[in-house]
Amino acid sequence: MVSNDAKELFIQGITRDGKTFRPSDWAERLAGVMSQFRPGGAHPGSHLSYSPWCIPTVVNGVKCVVVNRELRQLEPMAWDFVLHFARDNDLQVAEACLLPDPPKS
What we know:
- 25% of the residues lie in helices and 26% in strands.
- The mean pLDDT is 87.
- The longest helix is centred in the last third of the chain and has 13 residues, at 76-88.
- By secondary structure, it is α+β, with helices and mostly antiparallel strands.
């Protein structure tokens, strides 16, 4: 269950029994499918970049997809899609906030 106040949801590439999820590019594929869902809607060429609401990343050596809560409010079917993807593949999900990288000195 996802709380109502979570800012971001991390879908982790680890199943509940601790196995690494395959294929290895699953995060990029999921984020690619979600690329059309973005502020202002899809536009020509939007499929060439990730949506700011669904970003693949690596956290502590684990592939993840960070899903912003705004997606839930503006595109509820897309939000349901990513949650069902995680559930159907038995992936671990965590609520958190992605922090920006520290400035380089």
